[in-house]
Design brief:
This protein is an alpha/beta fold. It folds into 2 domains: about 1-30 and about 40-180, NAD(P)-binding Rossmann-like Domain (Rossmann fold, 3-Layer(aba) Sandwich); about 190-225, no CATH class. It contains 8 helices and 7 strands, in the order ααβαβαβαβαβαββα. It has helices at about 1-15, 20-25, 55-65, 80-85, 95-100, 120-125, 145-150, 190-210; strands spanning about 50, 70-75, 90, 105, 130-135, 155-160, 180. Strand 4 (about 105), helix 6 (about 120-125) and strand 5 form a beta-alpha-beta unit. Helix 1 (about 1-15) packs across helix 3 (about 55-65). The two termini are about 25 Å apart.
Length: about 230
C-alpha cells in the first residue's frame, strides 16, 4: 500500500505542476527562454485534499499529505473516529468533499457500490480547478462523464493509473487533453513491492501443494484443494 500511495502522490504532483507536459515540451525543443506564464500550475502545499476511501492506501496518502501542510477531508462508508483523529482528517459527505477539495484521490475497492462512483454529478460538484487522481480501479470513474467534464472545463485535470479498458486505445479522447496524465497501472511497480508479491504468490502455491490453507488467499474456501 505504501508503494501505491507513493504513486498517487506522484501523480498528484505531476498533474498539479504540469510535470509531464513541460517535460515533453522540453524534449521537443520548446524550451527557448523563461516565461512568467509558462506551465503555470497549482500549489499542493497548503491545499485541501479529498481522500475517497480511508483504507491502508488512503491512510498512507494522508500521511504524505500532512507533510505538504494539506487539509485532508475523507469520505468513507464507515466512520473510524480513532483513525480520523490520529490522522487529523475530517470525515464529510462525498458531496462536501468534492465541493471543498483542490485535489480528489480515489482509494476504494471496485464493486457494484463503487462502479461509476465519479460521474457527471460528481464532476459538476468539483471546483473548476480541482484535479482528480485515480489509482484504485478504472471502473470507479465514469470515463465518458470525465471526458465531458474535461471538455467543458468543469475540472482542472486528471491523473489516472487505471482506466477502462486497459490499455486505452491511442485514439481515446483522454489522450487528447494536455491536463491529463495517464500511466499504465504501475501502482505496485517498485522493485521491493514486486519482489514481495512474487514471494506471496510462491508461498500460496507451496501451501496449497502441501494441502494447507494459503497464507494470502484471494478468497478463503473451506478446503484449499477445492478452490
Amino acid at each position: 500500500h505504501e508503494t501505491t500511495a507513493d504513486l498517487a502522490f506522484a501523480l498528484l504532483l505531476a498533474a498539479a505542476r504540469n510535470v509531464v507536459l513541460s517535460e515533453r515540451d522540453t524534449r521537443d525543443g520548446g524550451w527557448q527562454t523563461w516565461s512568467p506564464t509558462g506551465f503555470l500550475g497549482h500549489d499542493p502545499y497548503g491545499a485541501t485534499l479529498g481522500i475517497v476511501g480511508l483504507g491502508e492506501i488512503g491512510r498512507a496518502v494522508t500521511r504524505r499529505a500532512r507533510g505538504f501542510g494539506m487539509t485532508v477531508l475523507t469520505a468513507t462508508r464507515t466512520a473510524r473516529p480513532e483513525v480520523e483523529r490520529e490522522l487529523g482528517v475530517e470525515r464529510v459527505s462525498l458531496r462536501e468533499l468534492l465541493e471543498r477539495s483542490d485535489f480528489v484521490t480515489l482509494h476504494v475497492p471496485y464493486g457494484p457500490e463503487t462502479e461509476g462512483l465519479m460521474g457527471a454529478a460528481e464532476f459538476a460538484a468539483m471546483k473548476e480547478t480541482a484535479i482528480l487522481v485515480n489509482t484504485s480501479r478504472g471502473g470507479v470513474v465514469d470515463q465518458d462523464a470525465l471526458v465531458e467534464a474535461l471538455h467543458a472545463g468543469a475540472i482542472g485535470g486528471a491523473a489516472l493509473d487505471v482506466t477502462v479498458p486497459e490499455p486505452l486505445s491511442l485514439d481515446h479522447p483522454l489522450f487528447g487533453f494536455p491536463n491529463v496524465v495517464i500511466t499504465p497501472h504501475i501502482g505496485s511497480a517498485s522493485h521491493a513491492t514486486r519482489a514481495r508479491m512474487a514471494e506471496m504468490a510462491a508461498s500460496n502455491i507451496i501451501a496449497v501443494l502441501a494441502g494447507e490453507e494459503p497464507p494470502n488467499p484471494v478468497n478463503r474456501p473451506p478446503n484449499p484443494r477445492s478452490a
